[in-house]
Amino acid sequence: MASATETVRFTTDWVWQSVYTPYIAGVYLGFYAEEGLSVTVDRGYGSADAATKIASGVYDMGVVDLGVLIEFNSRNPGNELTAVAIIYNFSPLCIMTLARTGIRTPKDLEGRTIAAPAGAAARVLFPAFAELTGIDVTKVTWVTVTPALREPMLVRGEVDATAPFLDALLTLKLAGVPEEEIVVFHYPEYGLDLYGLAVVARRDLIAERPQVVQKMVKAIIRSWLWAIENPDELIDILLQVDPLIDPKIEKERFHLVVNRLILTPEVYENGFGYASHDRLLRNIEIVSKTLALPRVIPLDLLFTWEFLPPLEERLPRK
């Protein structure tokens, strides 16, 4: 263990769920402490909000959707954040609605209302999805809501759709909606080949305390690989944070995300946290073009491989 303890303030980008528990599992299991780190982990309020708070110094590191990060860095020259590990190899962004609304295709969203927090990644990147699917964005009305109100408003019929992550279908199931009634437009299935959530850090932290970033990445990846192998124990930790969660739903949520968004062929070959050079460039191109960003950021302002542990420490079991 390191002789000195470094303090790190970390934020997720969403509420406490099983898919965010690995970050606090590192606290409960002592993985951060073994690296000489004292880490506090707070829940988030959307990727754009998390990026803003990290960049302003409220937090040192956190979780941000990579597409949102591309936009943030383009619009904030001199205050960019850098992704240091990819968590979701496949983007979780989607639009979700119910069969009773009559929305069958993305184009049917025109003239309808969609609920999401202002900084939600699926809302921020909706113009990219709209361009690929022929939606006129001027014909869609956004309703800004808190995370807790998003799915209940859809269930009550107060909005026509939501802009969540893929695993929100578990939240709807928990609210009593049969799965066959849930309609999902998953962005990657419509041509958006985007990475999803990533661990990001401020550039001054990387420059001044690179050893801290390296230790954080090592501990986070270790926590995630532990969680994939120990989902029941992960839920036990989540219950200590929020005793009101539904263990069955949260375990189902975790398996959905791991199997559909995390354990891809790329991860099995190159390890957890890895990002492809060519895919990153495509992500920058897609987001920059469809959001008409003021500048196209260079790759080194988006991602660095320098803090990833050796491959053997990042490979998941098949």
What is the CATH class of the largest domain?
Alpha Beta
CATH topology of the largest domain: D-Maltodextrin-Binding Protein, domain 2
In the sheet with the most strands, the strands line up as: 2-1-3-10-4
The beta-strand count equals 10
- Percent of sequence in beta strands: 15-25%
Put simply, the count of helices is 14
CATH superfamily of the largest domain: Periplasmic binding protein-like II
Radius of gyration: 19 Å
Calculate the terminal CA-CA distance, rounded to whole Å: 30 Å
Mean pLDDT: 94
Q: What CATH architecture of the largest domain do you see? A: 3-Layer(aba) Sandwich
Write down the secondary-structure element order.
Answer: EHHEHEHEEEHHEHEHEEHHHHHH
Shape: globular
Report helical residue fraction. 40-55%
The helix/strand class is: alpha/beta
Indicate how many domains the architecture comprises.
Answer: 2
Major β-sheet profile: 5 strands, mixed
Low-confidence stretches: none
Descriptive notes:
- It is built from 14 helices and ten strands.
- The chain has 318 residues and is α/β, with parallel strands linked by helices.
- The protein folds into two domains: 203 residues, Periplasmic binding protein-like II (D-Maltodextrin-Binding Protein, domain 2, 3-Layer(aba) Sandwich), CATH 3.40.190; 97 residues, Periplasmic binding protein-like II (D-Maltodextrin-Binding Protein, domain 2, 3-Layer(aba) Sandwich), CATH 3.40.190.10.
- Strands 2-1-3-10-4 form a five-stranded mixed sheet, with helices on both faces. A five-stranded mixed sheet has the order 7-6-8-5-9, covered by helices on one side.
- The longest helix has 20 residues.
- It is globular and about 60 Å long.
